[in-house]
Amino acid sequence: MSEGTMMAVQVGSETISGDMSPDVNVKVVQVPIPTPGIGEALVKVRRAGICNTDLEIFKGYMGFHGIIGHEFVGTVKHVGSCEGGLCVGQRVVGEINLPCNNCVVCTEGPSVARRNHCPARTTLGIHNQDGTYAEYLLLPMANLKRVPDSVTDEQACFVEPLAAACRIVEQGVIHPQHRVAVIGDGKLGLLITKVLATEESAGLDIFGHHPEKLALAPRNCTTHLVKKLADLPADMVDMFDVCIDATGHPSGLIMAGKLTKPLGTVVLKTTCAMTNSDLNTAEFVIKEICILGSRCGPFGMAIDLLAEQRVTVDELISKVYPFKDLTQALRHARAKGTLKIQLAMEDN
């Protein structure tokens, strides 16, 4: 049984102001340490990553109430049963979707449907499941994956977003004869290029707004500094078999429509709300372009890429803050040009 209290950050209460303006102080509160049930593990968080989704949740996205955060690495402190193959003291990361394991999707669908699409799922730090901005968290042992000793805490904290990048490979849309473009030079766009650079293709290009970020792309990736759609070189139009939009903005989808060949594929890795009617679907209809959504991906592949040093992520860390400096960390994460901000828990 777990006893005592822990530090945590809760949203959807009076403890945090929803506007996340620069002068807001995010409060860390004391809450009871959770107790694992059968099939669950209590994990002491070692490191947590700040994701753009977290910043949106602070502003009310998803209407979430509870402890925020979903990127982490931690240490198993207690298990609810001896099943599951986990031992106390092991370092772990965790898949963020918790399926019900009882519905038709879970019992009759493929494993990826259970992982990503159970209609009754909860999601760590996003939907009906307390997350990582805390000293401890609970997850089913089936969701936890052991971290090899060769992978540092800083690197392990990237497993969840790196797995999302790996999902594109898992979906099987890229083939050796394909020329591929990634649109967006933020954290996810760079992770996608790093993953795809390990795969065989006829060419890999990334389009972005920031020369300092484009410089972090893999050496076998061609970079293009494009500030706006009007700057897109004419010889790039209809050039790519697969375009991956990682911008989180409608303009990324518009650019993808320009870049993609007829009968090509556009992969959407980020969500965005259409606030106006600027999106012209003619490119997609006339060129018969397939639009494919892409969500959470395979943790095993992401862990292997890090352990084998086929993908590096240390250069994507802008700064690590102690948990007690969460307010400063969130302000930094919101600042223009910031890549990954991580929170280091104390006394691990």
From the helix content, strand content and strand pairing, which structural class follows? alpha/beta
Assign a percent range to the helix content. Answer: 10-25%
Unreliable residue stretches: 14-24
Average pLDDT taken over every residue: 91
Q: Mind summarizing the main beta sheet?
A: 7 strands, mixed
Number of strands: 20
Specify Rg, calculated over alpha carbons: 20 Å
Total of helices: 11
Please give the alpha-carbon distance between the first and last residues. 20 Å
Please tell me what the overall shape is: globular
Q: Which band does the percent of strand residues land in?
A: 25-35%
Task: Provide keyphrases for this structure.
six-stranded parallel beta sheet, seven-stranded mixed beta sheet, alpha/beta, 348 residues
Task: Set down the secondary structure blueprint.
Elements: E1 5-8, E2 10-11, E3 29-32, E4 40-50, H1 52-58, E5 66-67, E6 71-79, E7 91-94, E8 97-98, H2 104-108, H3 111-117, E9 122-124, E10 128-129, E11 136-140, E12 144-146, H4 153-156, H5 159-170, E13 179-183, H6 187-196, E14 203-208, H7 211-214, E15 222-225, E16 240-245, H8 250-259, E17 260-268, H9 282-286, E18 290-293, H10 299-307, E19 317-322, H11 326-334, E20 340-344
Parallel strand pairs: 9-10, 13-14, 13-16, 14-15, 16-17, 17-18, 19-20
Antiparallel strand pairs: 1-3, 2-5, 4-6, 4-11, 4-20, 6-7, 7-12, 8-9
Helix pairs in contact: 5-6, 5-10
